[in-house]
């Protein structure tokens, strides 16, 4: 295999992201934070340090050539509270001297910040956490195996991209409180061409973990068989069965709907807590320590303990995904879903959300959609999922004929309120923000 290496580094070199230097940086953050708080005289402040390593391998299936890129970065985020108003700032971190600068920047932005609760004290002291090394050789080996064992023969592979990511974080707050943690993941994305459009699928696991390649291969083979060959128009009067690869974007949209910031802007949804808003076949959980999660964690990025959340219990709306700010806005307790991303303050997000499988029986006759054709976006309008999917007409458990791909426009709330059953084949998808779903069964749906 030929390899082109394109290494891009961030503001820090590998020596800065070593374990000893990171621990020293966390201690420097504590010293700087204590000095800042004494000088400020009142209020609260925190520093959130992040060190990241990333590698990406683009693999050409036809030639065996690959391009490797990656780098490291180090950043510091600060929040400063004054009278329940908060300022936030993020800076690339070249060394301990930047810590005071980011605190001062956050303090200058307090007046523009929204109302926010003061943080709860952190009881635990900093724990030892080491940023793992990434392995280009492992990525190359896995890319070769992916093409050799997983992709169906004759498949036109437009792109095979493997990625490794590791992140160390330290949350430092006043009164000696602090937390450290490490997350990591390894993913593979495959984009393949069929005569009716491209399909994209992926697998993921914690760094060093095993991918479920058999499940990926089965989905790809199923997609090829559904999209290659003669087709007939789908019968609009049949119930619709969405296999996991097609249902995943719909579940990702449901996770969006259950975020605290979305709920705060939707009073009717907030008032529905405790009510049976969905059929009894629907239960939804967010389980941070699920064995299939690629970002297992015991605390969120605000230091709040995570726990298993039963968001929907047999159709009854029970809870939402909350950061400290959205929980305070709705007058409830934070539940460990305040996560950071893209330099923004912590916001509500799932860790490992999935529809709980039940193994319900399928109808006698139905349209089975197994392959989702790639589109520019799956939620062009808030709360509405657009899908293009192909599959089969099934009679008495047998696939009788291929159906031409259909265009589905599905309002999330209304669609799940019509759910008739869930399968036992739970699968998780990096292409759907890590969310999981089994087969979902619906009554006849509208399509074009």
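Sequence proposed for the structure above (448 residues):
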């Amino acid at each position: 295999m030929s390899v082109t290496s394109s290494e891009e580094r961030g503001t820090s070199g590998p020596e800065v992201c070593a374990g000893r230097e990171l621990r020293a940086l966390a201690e420097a953050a504590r010293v700087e934070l204590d000095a800042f708080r004494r000088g400020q005289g009142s209020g609260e402040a925190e520093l959130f340090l992040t060190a990241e390593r990333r590698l990406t391998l683009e693999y050409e299936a036809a030639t065996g050539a690959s391009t490797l890129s990656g780098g490291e970065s180090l950043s510091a985020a600060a929040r400063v509270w004054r009278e329940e108003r908060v300022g936030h700032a993020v800076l690339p971190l070249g060394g301990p001297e930047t810590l005071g600068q980011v605190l001062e920047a956050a303090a200058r932005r307090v007046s523009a910040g929204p109302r926010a609760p003061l943080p709860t004290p952190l009881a635990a002291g900093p724990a030892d956490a080491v940023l793992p090394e990434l392995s280009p050789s492992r990525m190359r080996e896995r890319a070769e195996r992916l093409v050799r064992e997983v992709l169906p023969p004759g498949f036109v592979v437009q792109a095979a991209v493997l990625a490794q990511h590791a992140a160390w974080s330290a949350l430092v707050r006043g009164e000696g409180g602090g937390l450290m943690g490490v997350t990591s993941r390894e993913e593979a994305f495959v984009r393949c061409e069929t005569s009716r459009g491209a399909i994209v699928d992926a697998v993921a696991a914690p760094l060093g973990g095993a991918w479920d390649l058999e499940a990926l291969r089965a989905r790809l083979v199923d997609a090829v068989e559904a999209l290659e060959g003669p087709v007939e128009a789908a019968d609009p009067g049949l119930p619709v069965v969405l296999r996991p690869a097609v249902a995943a974007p719909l579940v990702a949209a449901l996770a969006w709907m259950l975020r605290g910031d979305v709920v705060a802007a939707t009073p009717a949804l907030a008032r529905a807590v405790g009510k049976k808003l969905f059929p009894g076949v629907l239960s939804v959980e967010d389980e941070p320590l699920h064995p299939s999660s690629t970002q297992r964690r015991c605390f969120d990025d605000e230091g709040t303990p995570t726990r298993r959340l039963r968001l929907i219990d047999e159709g009854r709306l029970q809870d939402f995904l909350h950061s400290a700010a959205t929980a305070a806005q709705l007058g409830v307790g934070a539940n460990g879903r305040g996560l950071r991303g893209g330099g923004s303050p912590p916001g509500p997000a799932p860790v490992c959300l999935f529809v709980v499988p039940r193994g319900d029986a399928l109808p006698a006759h139905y349209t089975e959609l197994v392959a989702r054709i790639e589109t520019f976006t799956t939620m062009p309008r808030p709360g509405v999922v657009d899908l293009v999917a192909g599959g089969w007409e099934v009679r008495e458990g047998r696939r009788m004929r291929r159906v031409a791909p259909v265009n589905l426009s599905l309002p999330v709330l209304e669609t799940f309120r019509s759910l008739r059953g869930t399968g036992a084949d739970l699968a998780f998808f990096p292409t759907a923000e890590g969310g999981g779903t089994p087969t979902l069964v619906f009554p006849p749906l509208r399509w074009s």
